[in-house]
Specification:
The structure is a single chain. With 57 residues, this protein is an alpha+beta fold. The chain has a domain of 32 residues. A 3-stranded antiparallel sheet has the order 1-2-3, with no helix packed on it. Strand 2 and strand 3 form a beta hairpin. The chain is globular. InterPro entries: HVO_0416-like. This is Small CPxCG-related zinc finger protein.
Length: 57
C-alpha cells in the first residue's frame, strides 16, 4: 500500500543512512555563506570545519 507522503530520492537515501547510524546533517546555507547547524556560525564556502564550535559534517 502506497503512502500519500512523497519523498525525494535524497530524502529516502538520507533516511536509509540515518537508520543505519550515519549522520547526514550538513552545512546550512545563508546567503552566499555556509552556516553551522549546531551554533549558527557563518563561514566561507570553502570551510570544512566550524571555527566557532568545531563541528564537522
Amino acid at each position: 500500500m502506497a503512502t500519500s507522503e512523497q519523498h525525494s530520492a535524497d530524502e529516502l537515501f538520507d533516511e536509509f543512512l540515518e537508520d543505519r547510524g550515519h549522520d547526514t546533517q550538513g552545512w546550512e546555507e545563508s546567503y552566499n555563506k555556509k552556516q553551522c547547524p549546531d551554533c549558527g556560525g557563518l563561514h566561507e564556502a570553502t570551510a570544512v570545519e566550524c571555527s566557532v564550535c568545531g563541528w564537522r559534517p
